[in-house]
């Protein structure tokens, strides 16, 4: 029975992978086209704002107004990014504190586990797995 089900499972998996790949490729192309359209609309909007302001303030002042507005928006975006980054650092610090507390609790139970050799081996294997997983998590934080 397993020999009949295995090819069917592999076939279904390969179809799903092909479908996922096709959808991802299609979405990437469509998102790229949308990005080009949005960028064109953005540039056209800036030109329209500049053209509207030229008769009122003149070309030099209108260019400075548009540049100043864009600089203000860019500064606001950088401020939001800095706030989000600080919030993420705080969350990461809380996660690390919780991991340290968990490790400390596990170490406090260790003397009781040393009475049984099989439990000691299981605890050692679990501790090694924990340290390896923490090592991989720390590499990704940059």
Commentary on this structure:
It contains three helices and no strands. It is an all-alpha fold and 142 residues long. The longest helix has 56 residues. The radius of gyration is 29 Å and the shape is flat. The mean pLDDT is 82.
The residue fraction in helices comes out at over 70%
Bulk shape: flat
How is the main sheet built?
none
Q: How many runs of DSSP E, i.e. beta strands?
A: 0
Summarize the helix and strand pattern as letters.
HHH
Low-confidence stretches: none
Nutshell version of this structure?
The chain has 142 residues and is mainly alpha-helical. It is built from three helices and no strands.
List keywords for this structure.
142 residues; 3 helices; flat
Write the layout of secondary structure elements.
Blueprint: H1 2-57, H2 59-113, H3 117-140
Helix pairs in contact: 1-2
